[in-house]
Design a protein that fits this description.
The mean pLDDT is about 90. Helix content is about 45%, strand content about 15%. By secondary structure, the protein is of the alpha/beta class. The protein contains 22 helices and 16 strands. Strand 15, helix 19 and strand 16 form a beta-alpha-beta unit. The protein binds phosphoenolpyruvate and magnesium ion.
Amino acid sequence: MKLSGIPINSGIAIGRVMRYLPDCGEKGEKARDAAICAEEELDRYRRAAEEVRQELKQLVRQASEEGQAHSDIFYAHVAMLEDKMLNAEIADCITKEHMRASNAVCRVFNRFEAMLRHTGEPLIQERAADLSDIRLRLLQRFSGQPRHDLSKLPGPVVVVAKDLLPSDTATLDRKNVLAIVTEGGSLTSHSAIIACSYGIPAVLGVSGAVSKLRDGETVVVDGVSGCVHTQVAGEEMKRFCLLRDQMLREKERAMGVRNAQPITKDGRRIGVKLNMEALTQDVLDARSCVDGVGLFRTEFLYMDRPEPPSEEEQFQVYRRVAEAFGGKAVTLRTLDLGGDKQAGCLNLPHEENPFLGSRALRLCLSRPELFRTQLRAALRASVYGNLQLMLPMVSSVEDIRAARVVLEQAKTQLRERGQPFQAHIPVGIMVEIPSIALVADLAAREVDFASIGTNDLCQYLMAADRKNPAVATYYRTLHPAMLRLISLVTEAFHRLGKQVSVCGEMGGNPVTALALIGLGVDSLSVGVSALPGIKKMIPSISAHEAKNQMDRLQKQCLTKDIERALQELLDSAL
Ligand code: PEP
Ligand code: MG
């Protein structure tokens, strides 16, 4: 039998099924009960809520100490539990409708969960699972029953469940979970996020998994194709075993290459940093192989939520990232919303050409309080590590100066509050609009560093939408105009002794990264998956030879000739 679902993590696992069917002690929602004493029930609720709050805070601490990305999830659970509207409704059910505390919790949480499920927004719908997680914790407090979970498993198993709550996945006995199969869930569920960060093969959304699979039977979970195979034997089983071992070996090899020193054959040290959106397990595991974070895309914190994150929430997140990287620099890019990155919580108006509209820094300058809130949070976090700020979508020196005014206001506010921050936090710009690239000599006087955002620089320079396949042939990062512009920026910043990094995708592809090294950039900031390729390329090439090639290639007419020459150079080096 073959069951299909959504693949979450690549990798193949072979093992015995253990179905997880927790008895959550959930009670139905009952109507009024004249016999209750409202004061006592209210008190019971408050005590239970406080205990759950402390339990969740302990989970946040534990996850942060272990460097786990999912501490954010429990942090969000604390915020949900403290929600004023939710608490007021529960209190009303108890005092006005004479409901027991447990029934009031069921009534109100069910209503809130249903509201989220009916939004039609998959990402918001997923948050209903977080509410049911908190509801179960509260109900278990009332019933006094011990919580069943997956923190101690009898041996290596494939966990099969209707659904896993975020806390089930977060407290998993990781050394014994070979794979996860659930009936519910999707790519954006917190269970998926956590499974992903653990690197456990997982297939979610497998209809009927709990009734179709039996405890103890051996299954093959294929996290590549999203299939669960049963009754596999003989040649077929041999094939799966081979595939599993091969994938494990590839993973180990890639891990080995990641540790290589990024020094070219002729002794030039190239900085290698990470691009990140959140502190996932992948990012945490890669920390020791990189020089820091070259691009922390903070806008993801604002997406898929009804309200923008508060200063406190942002501070906690930025602080955790800064602490996780110790003394290594973390480049926090201020909000880059707008364009293709929309955030419902900001109610951004419709624009005919959003990529040419009120995006990123432009949006922040038009909403100074939104910007100041983020800057205050980042400044406060700056005392916990080595943070630097980076402004996206800068088009002129005026933009830089206007941003600096808001930054000074944020600093003044913190001084008034008596909160500490790094007064001389470095400030850099993204060079991703041709206008600022062309006046890089002027911009370099105003900031501490530059990072070239080649993804946008190419689309704005070539007038080719970075997401439109119809114009993909016009979107060529090795066009001589791109090469000349990058060279101009690098030289202008170097003249003032300031560093230039590249955080666009061009830095993550070995062929184009070779061109960037030849053009003189100091560091490359890349996604985790691009690390092995880049770390393999750097020690194989000569920076001097790359420079000579690039001096020559910038004068070529045809992009295809440049692409071919660079590919040949790389092939001969590797
Ligand atoms: C870029 O434009 O190259 C960049 C790194 O920013 P983003 O892809 O987030 O727009
Ligand atoms: Mg960009």
